[in-house]
Amino acid sequence: MALPSRYRTLLSETLDLDDGDSIQLVLVPDLESACLSIYPLNQWQLILKKIDGLANTSGNKQFKRWLLGNAEVVEADRNGRILIPPRLREIAKLERALALVGQSTKFEVWDDQRWKAANGELPDMSQVSGIEEIPL
C-alpha cells in the first residue's frame, strides 16, 4: 500500500525526520471495526506506556497478548509504500482495493468496499456527543 505524498510530508514534519530518514509505522488490528490502525512509531510508544500500566488481570493479559502479538512495525520505502503482512490483511478482511482514512493521530486502512458500505452516509449527528463544542 502506498501512502499519499501529503501524508508522507505530514508524517515527516510531525516526526521531525531528515531527508533520507524512513517513516516507521505500527500496524495493529482495530478494536472496534474490521480495519487496521496505523500509528506513527512515536504515537504507538505513548499507547504502549498506557497498555503497560494496565492491571495484570487475566483479561488484560489476554488483551495484551492479542494486540501486541498482532502489532507489526513497518518501514515505508522511499516511495511511501508499506507492506501489510498477510495475517493482518486477514484479520482486517482486506481484499485488493484499500481505503486509507486519516484519524487525527492515526490512520485506518479499510477494504474499500467495506469502507463504502460502513461509511457512505453522514452519521446521525444526534448520536454524536460534544460536537456542538467544535466550530465546524
UniProtKB/TrEMBL annotation:
GO terms for biological process: cell division; negative regulation of DNA-templated transcription initiation. Keywords: Cell cycle, Cell division, Cytoplasm, DNA-binding, Repeat, Transcription, Transcription regulation. PROSITE patterns: SPOVT_ABRB (PS51740). Signal peptide: none annotated. One of its GO terms (molecular function) is transcription cis-regulatory region binding. Its main location: cytoplasm. One of its GO terms (cellular component) is cytoplasm. It is found in: Cytoplasm, Nucleoid. It comes from the Bacteria. Residues 71-114 form the SpoVT-AbrB domain. InterPro entries: MraZ (IPR003444), MraZ_C (IPR035644), MraZ_dom (IPR020603), MraZ_N (IPR035642), MraZ_sf (IPR038619), SpoVT-AbrB_dom (IPR007159), SpoVT-AbrB_sf (IPR037914). The keyword Metal-binding does not apply. Pfam families: MraZ. The keyword Repeat applies. Forms oligomers. Belongs to the MraZ family. This is Transcriptional regulator MraZ. It comes from Pelagibaculum spongiae. The gene is mraZ.
